[in-house]
Amino acid sequence: MACCILHKDLGYVEPNTNKRKWHSAFVAIYCSRAFLSHFRTTAPKQSYNKISPSPSHTIVNVKPENSFEIHPTSLVELVQDKNLLQLEDFGGVAGVVKALKTDAELGIQSDDKENIARRHKEFGSNTYRKPLTKNLIHFVWQAFKDLTIIILLGCAALSLGFGMKVQGAKQGWIDGVSIFVTVFLVTGVSAISNYKQNNQFDKLLKISNNIQVNVVREGLFQQISIFEIVVGDIVCLKMGDQVPADGLLLEGHSLHIDESSMTGESDQVEVNHNQNPFLLSGTKVVDGNSRMLVTSVGMNTTWGQMMSQISHDSNEETPLQAQLERLTSSINKIGLTGTFLVIVVLFVRYFTGNTEDDNGNREFNRSTTKSDKVVNTVIAIIRSAVTIQDGLPLALTLVLGYSMKRMVVDNAMVRKLSACETMGSVTTVCTDRTGTLTMNQMRVTEFWLGDESVAEDSYSTIVPYVAELVREGIALNTTASIYKPNLGSEFEISCTPTEKAILSWAVLELNMDMEKVTRNCTIIRVEGVEAFDFRKKRSGVLMKRKADNTIWVHWKGAAEMILAMCSSYFDASGIIKDLGKNQKTKFEKIIQGMAANGFRCIGFAHKQVKTEELEDSEGHETLKKDGLILLGLMGISDPCRPGVKKAVEACQYSGVSVKMITGDNVFTAKATATECGILKSDQDMSSGAVIEGVEFRNYTPEKRLETVDKICVLARSSPFDKLLMVQCLKQKGHVVAVTGDGTSDAPALKEADVGLFMGIQGTEVAKECSDIVIESFTSVPTVLRWGRFVYNNIQKFIQYQLTANLSALVVNIVAAISDKEVPLTALPLLWMNLVMDTLGALALATELPTNELMENPPVGRTEPLITNTMWRNLLSQAFYQTAVMLTFQFKGETIFGLNDKVRDTLIFNTFILCQVFNEFNARKLEKKNVFKGIHRNKLFLGIIAITIVLQALMVESLKRFADTERLNWAEWGACVGLAAVSWPIDWVVKCIPVPGKPVFSYTSNKALKIFELGEFRVRENSFRTPHVDIC
Questions:
Q1: For labeling, which of 40, 288, 408, 627 is most exposed (least CB within 10 Å)?
Q2: Residues catalogued as catalytic
């Protein structure tokens, strides 16, 4: 009856048989869903403390002692729906902890392998199904979709058909099949190269995704792979981390999450215990610290489901690849235009009877026309015009793949291919101080109580009352945790390096018992904790002593900022004194003295507050920020990394400017910059080389652009200042690389042309915004050298291949128009393509980077891809090769007494050998000694030997296949001698100076902007993977 009523409501009309079946199926599904919906709404509410059945699961509790008290589906729905009512039914977060048989403080028992295995079985692993990887067949198919390959296959089919028709099946198949075989060989090499690069990219991606996560297991802090996390784990999160799985908040302070990767909303979401304790996998911690309980992993999370459907395209088109595509496309258009005109001339001459055969008779005869000559001529000319298109993409693929592999060996992992080539053009590197230039191994070196310094071995002499206040300020005003597994072991501290130095000092020197301090005090959590703010450089906490119920506020942060909040101070005797103007000046000099030694200066202050002082004018609870009592000043040392000064000098030697942008005060920044070599002895604030962030941001836009080049150190800077610096440098035409590891560095890393992530202790937010992961600043010169290696080797190959293509095109066109047989037909040119595009590209792509690359200034944005030097080299060699081949073509019979077969073989052999000898010339674009260091590149020498052997086989042994004639020793000697002349020609030509300004002004016409590197650099961001915006 229900179905009949539904039919009526739906406006049912008698359909045909097929429509009736589909309609019946729809009605059945609709009715079943309606029935289930009615069942859900009318069924009595069940308790979530037991296993909650779902429509898609049936749970049979066979062994209760081995199962958990909550079903995975319920956990998935709980977090993804952010259902507070359901969480209450479970008994809150504590109830979920109990149901998952874990401990909020100690975590799970990791020594019980069965426990981990059972959690894997019940809830799944923290991995997601990856899309099917592309196999070799895919890349072969992609190669055959190339227009050039399609043209060649068509030409091969025509050659095969016409050949068999004219010469018969016994002889006519050779040319066509030869072209097919060569095309398959060239295509196979290209496909295999792309396939290997794809596999290499997948391996690097796997390494990049293997994030290390801090968890608590058996009461111990452990670092495990993100893939090893199981449901029930207790995960420690800090600012900049990626949430590794779905979960619930256990404890945390000022926790703000960026959920834009999941929801698309850029607003930050506050996570707290009362209104929103839910954490989603894949989101980022923008601010605060916390501990979370993992409730769902892998494919049971929205993030896992999304990632399983995303295919990471390893064949991203880099800016240089786009540049080369435009270059080859434009050259091919020019070549094809010339080819079309030649074909028109040939057909007009042929069909008008203006061509003659060897006997002087007219070639064109309607009844006996032989089309194989015309077909071969057209095929050869087309092939000579389009041959470059295959070589440059393959060469760039080989260069990028080789450089990526070698950079991994040099502790640099490329996350975006475009960064490889962009590094070759970097003109400025902006670097952080802490952890980048320094070792990030901080230690408290000085402590001042009042205006007196406390000796390192005399901390026990500090007045007990003041020492207790310092202990309270350190233990409560922190997001760190201290754990001591047993009496004989060392303390385990989980926090930032600065916090770790402070806590270690308090534990070891002041005998601080963190558990005792926190047990005796209560933190007032309602607007009572102000987490460290990288803009304000301070953090505060409001707490109550349980012994007397007094309320105190504690502040710590940048020494000069804490000092500005104080009106009195403790002297060395523990007596509170007023902080007058003279005394404040004295403290400022103490801070400057510590900063001049490169110390990070931290101040501590406190004050007892009354209840009525807690609220502001609007009735909101707030922390008191003035009238405080200065407890003490601390100097924390952080030595420079070994090798940093040499790395900075190497960058400066190569023409790359290094600027330090730091949040430390100007004296600390200046001391570190001087020690590292960034700042010279004659540079200071008066010269404009050192300024503070507030001064820089208050400049007018014109003033910033005017002074940005002179600035070497930007101190007391905010993330906005760093971003502003990068933007100004890019406006001035610089190619900017930025190093960073913290969340605050993310905007600048994203804005820079190349973001360099310090992979030692960096955050996931910064990593997602970066392009290359390096170990330390000492790797920057190495990355620069590899970047220049990519650019330089591509230039070498362009010069090498343009020379061969230009000479082949000119020779064939001249021969065709002059009513001569084209000497370089399809098969020889395909063989040349194999020699150049594969063997030549491999030889030039694997030339190791040399120190000579670092002697030249960076390329910059406006330099042309084909320089005047390259034009000089390639035109001279192309002219010589053209002259030799045309001499053989037109005067071979007269001067040398050669028949047509031997003449064509000599031209083919000399042409290939000229490319072999010219390969040596291409090794050095400007240096005359092209043999320098060649003994170290055994691969290059091996490829040259293989090329010569294969060429000898083509001429001497594959006569029928290659349509060649065997040569005698004298003819071989002539070919080698003529080819070897290219060496002295190269030496002489390199003595000719060329102007620095490009001869061809491509910038005058935007349609011809194909050779400018700057064109694609400006648009580089269009190739970059979108990142999470945390600004």
A1: 40
A2: 432
